[in-house]
Amino acid sequence: MCCRFTQRLSWEELHRLADLIGRPRNLAPRYNIAPTSARAETVAEKPMFRTAFKTRRCIIPAWGFYEWTGKVGAKTPHHFLARSGEPLAFAASWEQAKHPDTGEPLTSATIIVGAANNWMNRFHDRQPIILDWRDANAWMRGDDPGALLRSPPEDSLQEWMVSIHVNKAGIGDYDASLVDPIAAVVP
């Protein structure tokens, strides 16, 4: 799972979902974002993620995410989003380091992925950990964040096939047509 995703939410929409602080950044709609990812089963133990998981948890808001089916060279992309139409809240952690060349602060985030629920398993055996927005504060400040690392309910997502132009990261990043359905898919 490469966990590419889409984000077209405004600061006002995000503020309605969660008690946000700080100034808005990077909120232009994007339709092919390619971040790094981490497995829920090991995020609390692996040295690369352990400290961030304990002290630097965050939520990455998303409108949807992509997954692929088919054989190598003929992959079909699918766009997944909440059946409710509500934005998704990906469980994530963040890290800050110095850029090796410039010494400038470099902030990165990692979306945490876990085992897919039965519905998603038709497409892939992993999926992003999607939090209920009501659990946002518990995720950010809670003592037991591991309790929230679970698959979403079976009926929480919908999907449709989209253009193969999504197949290459960074292509069409600002092109809203990337998420247009190309064919109806029966759930």
From TrEMBL:
Alphabetical list of SUPFAM superfamilies matching this protein: BB1717-like
InterPro entries cross-referenced by the UniProt entry: SRAP (IPR003738), SRAP-like (IPR036590)
UniProt name for this protein: Abasic site processing protein
Gene Ontology MF term list: lyase activity; peptidase activity; single-stranded DNA binding
Enzyme Commission number(s) from the entry: 3.4.-.-
Lineage start: Bacteria, Pseudomonadati, Pseudomonadota, Alphaproteobacteria, Hyphomicrobiales
Keywords linked to the UniProt accession: Covalent protein-DNA linkage, DNA damage, DNA-binding, Hydrolase, Lyase, Plasmid, Protease
Any single Pfam family the record assigns to this protein: SRAP
Provenance organism: Methylocystis rosea
Biological process annotations from GO: protein-DNA covalent cross-linking repair; proteolysis
Protein family membership: Belongs to the SOS response-associated peptidase family.
Major enzyme class: hydrolase
